[in-house]
């Protein structure tokens, strides 16, 4: 098994990266939450979803709509624009970040299999645009799901 002990943060730069990327209460999440709230949308934060024995905690959850929203940090989830592996302890960081990416995939897959819709955004994306996408999704749901081929019935 891999050693789980974190190597000491050897430079101020690494410390700064770690500090700026703590999983919870990152700024983009907070801004998105307040934006959604301002739109009159009500949601749960820190809502724990269990599927297949895994514990999954999306950033924003609309329980009735079964919508799970993640705002993935550019560093921890390695966004294509800003994802960087720190030079110091590169192997350690690479492994950790790869594990996050893998976990994201598994979480999305399990949630979708359990009937959830998963929306993932990067923290660098515009919160206004993200909020609009979420609102569109929710208002489409309100108007009724598109009929599935088996439930169309008579006209
Ligand atoms: Zn990014």
Protein model, in words:
- The chain contains four helices and five strands; from the N terminus they run ααββββαβα.
- The chain has 155 residues and is of the alpha+beta class.
- A three-stranded mixed β-sheet has the order 3-4-5. It has a two-stranded antiparallel ribbon with strand order 1-2.
- α2 (27-38) packs across α4 (127-142).
- The radius of gyration is 18 Å and the shape is globular.
- The model has no long low-confidence stretch (mean pLDDT 84).
Distance between the first and last residues' Cα: 61 Å
What portion of residues belong to β-strands? 5-15%
Q: Helical percent range?
A: 25-40%
Gross geometry: globular
Query: How many E-type strands?
Result: 5
Q: How many helix segments? A: 4
| Major sheet description | 3 strands, mixed
Radius of gyration: 18 Å
Structural class: alpha+beta
Low-confidence stretches: none
User: Can you write the helix and strand succession as a string?
Assistant: HHEEEEHEH
Mean pLDDT: 84
- Strand arrangement within the widest β-sheet reads 3-4-5
Task: Identify every distinct bound molecule in the structure, by name, code or SMILES.
Answer: zinc ion
Oligomer: single chain
